[in-house]
Amino acid sequence: MPDILIRNAESILTMDDERRELAGADILLRDGAVAAIGHGLESTGEIVEARGCVVTPGLVNTHHHLYQSMTRAVPAGQDALLFNWLQALYPVWARFGPEEMHVSALTGLAELALSGCTLTSDHLYLYPNGARLEDTITAAQEIGMRFHPTRGAMSIGESKGGLPPDALVEEEAAILEDCIRVVDAFHDASEGSMCRVGIAPCSPFSVSRELMRDAALLARDKGVMLHTHLAENDQDIAYSEQMFGCRPGQYAEDLGWTGPDVWHAHCVKLDGAEIDLFARSRTGVAHCPCSNCRLGSGIAPVRAMLDAGVPVGLGVDGSASNDAGNLVAEARQAMLLQRVTRGADAMSARRALELATRGGADVLGRPDCGRLALGKRADVAVWDVSGIDSAGSWDKAALLLAGPMKVRHLFVEGRQVVRDGHVTTLDLPRVIERQDRLARALAG
Questions:
Q1: Whole-angstrom Cα distance, residue 162 to residue 240?
Q2: Residue at 438 is within a domain
Q3: How distant is the alpha carbon of residue 397 from its chain centre?
Q4: Is residue 150 part of a domain?
Q5: Percent of the chain beyond pLDDT 90?
Q6: More confident residue, 1 or 49
Q7: CB atoms inside a 10 Å sphere around CB 405
Q8: Is a pLDDT exceeding 90 seen at residue 162?
Q9: Residue 434, domain member (yes or no)
């Protein structure tokens, strides 16, 4: 792989341990890692001119449902709260198969890449009509995205008091068996890994306590991370109290679902005791502000979490409840919502960007990503701040206040995935055509 020198950046926001910001600087990428950062660097490899650009680490997405990019703005769910929204969409998702899973993943990953994302998790918790986790893994390989898929599951259908229809749930023994299969086949624990697999029963209202406990035991035996939804809205809290006699935080702790190898999506309704629990145990949170707004779930107490020491990253969530997959837009929304609830000084533009880079990488157990420093992975986003978005800005590095929503260039493991605002690894118009054709068939 040839060296790449990104040269003459207006500013490099490193997100390193010192949070250095370098003006007029360069960054050298070699063999998939950052080889040098400084001024006046030279290289015989490819030169990428970054004059008029801000350079950041690639963004990190800690929660997504890629398959949902094929069901954006479905009329039946446009104005529904979480549980009703799910009940409206389950019958549509039940008609998915391997092609729908693969194409929707390609679309969602391309959208993330164009928003500056280099590492994303994905929570796939339903497998209708022969769909498998590798339908998404192959999509990530095609586009060149660093991927953290999670083998989700639902096992408690409507007939047993759960939310999903019985046709979408699986037997718990089969779930655990397939978790073992995909971890053994695809999980790479090495530094610089392009694919790590997690285990992720969908939610407390769609799986049994036994499956949650068994999943935690299996994940720790395999050395992989755990993920689920938790405390997303008031309905979620009421269900936990009615069915389990406790709040979601207590439920998670009782079943082994706290610790640095666990991250929970949403956590909108965590109370002070639960925040303290997550801080003590170093349990991570994937904050999904746009989806929480779209579904009327509320505003997560992110400032309180950060002040307590809870690891927090950002997630776009599924495109059926967002209905977008733009991670830099998610970071801006996170910043604005904390200001709405806590005042204008509650979250700075740089702090929100840190959640979208270093913060998310740490939540996913990837200290090799999310920052630009010697030896860290060559995952780099280059943002053009010479255009209308930033015109008149006195602080070009304050991207979330006045900056572009799409990236100019993107590198993953030192390979260019976006060049001049276009995905280089896919025929994206063809993917979009396939996506729209399959969506029309589902709607018909």
A1: 12
A2: no
A3: 23
A4: yes
A5: 96
A6: 49
A7: 16
A8: no
A9: no
Dump pLDDT digits (tens) for 410-428. Answer: 999 999 999 999 999 999 9
Question: For tokens 């953290």, what's the residue?
Answer: 148
Domain around 8: 4-57+377-423
CATH number of the structural domain spanning residue 18? 2.30.40.10
Same domain? For 327 and 220 the reply is: yes
What is the rounded CA–CA span in Å between residue 184 and residue 78?
39
Q: Give the list of residues 6+ apart from residue 301 with CB closer than 8 angstroms, or none.
A: 270, 275, 341
Rg (CA), the chain: 21
User: Per-residue pLDDT tens for 55-71?
Assistant: 999 999 999 999 999 99
157 token code pair: 């259908």
Which class for 244: exposed (0-12), middle (13-18), buried (19 or more C-beta within 10 A)? middle
- CB-CB contact of 58 with 88 (8 Å): no
User: What confidence score (pLDDT) does residue 1 get?
Assistant: 80
pLDDT at 444 over 90: no
pTM of this prediction exceeds 0.90: yes
Averaged pLDDT, 228-238: 94
Going by C-alpha positions, the residue among 58, 146, 101, 132 that lies closest to residue 318 is: 101
Return d(Cα 193, Cα 183) in angstroms, integer: 14
Query: Residue 236 is encoded by which pair of tokens?
Result: 């979620």
Whether residues 262 and 396 share a domain: the answer is no
- The pLDDT score that the predictor gives to residue 170 is 98
In a domain, 146, yes or no: yes
Token look-up 């006195």 returns 394
Q: How far apart are the first and last CA of the chain?
A: 47
Placement of tokens 């439920």 in the chain:
251
Pairing mode of beta strands 312-314, 284-287:
parallel
323 prior amide bond cis, ω within 30: yes
**322 alpha-carbon distance from chain centroid:** 13
